[in-house]
């Protein structure tokens, strides 16, 4: 079971997501040192992370080696990630509304929003954005 999970698209998607999370948070944190509008900073950081994860998912998770095929997937991938960002952003904002805002609560809200959106993003990427190139990997 563990070997199957490690070799699955979901595991690769999660690893790419971890890279995206780091990129997202580093950009978010770095910009937030200079810009006080955390929600605007959050959107900019998301855009940067989305480009990074699109390339990594196209190349490694869903094994698209043809550059033209990868580029065709970009609009659909961005749509999926944007919907996921709405889920992420809503979770992030709701948690900040419900709990006292401080450095720790912002980070926790950031993590929870990212995890909730990850499940949606994987399903959408697998079954819609990269559907044509998927091999037999039956997580969902």
TrEMBL record:
A Pfam family this chain is assigned to: GtrA_DPMS_TM
PROSITE patterns named in the record: PROKAR_LIPOPROTEIN
Keywords, alphabetical: Membrane, Transmembrane, Transmembrane helix
This protein's GO CC annotations: plasma membrane
Main location: membrane
UniProt-recorded name of the protein: GtrA/DPMS transmembrane domain-containing protein
PANTHER family linked: PROPHAGE BACTOPRENOL-LINKED GLUCOSE TRANSLOCASE HOMOLOG (PTHR38459:SF1)
Entry membrane topology: Multi-pass membrane protein
């Amino acid at each position: 079971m563990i070997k199957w999970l490690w070799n699955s698209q979901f595991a690769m998607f999660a690893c790419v997501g971890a890279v995206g999370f780091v990129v997202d948070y580093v950009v978010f944190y770095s910009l937030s040192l200079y810009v006080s509008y955390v929600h605007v900073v959050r959107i900019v950081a998301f855009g940067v992370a989305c480009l990074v994860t699109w390339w990594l998912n196209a190349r490694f998770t869903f094994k698209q080696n043809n550059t033209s095929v990868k580029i065709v997937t970009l609009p659909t991938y961005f749509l999926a990630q944007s919907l996921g960002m709405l889920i992420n952003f809503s979770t992030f904002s709701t948690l900040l509304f419900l709990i006292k805002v401080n450095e720790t609560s912002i980070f926790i809200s950031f993590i929870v929003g990212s995890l909730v959106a990850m499940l949606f993003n994987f399903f959408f990427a697998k079954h819609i954005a990269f559907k044509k190139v998927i091999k037999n990997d039956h997580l969902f």
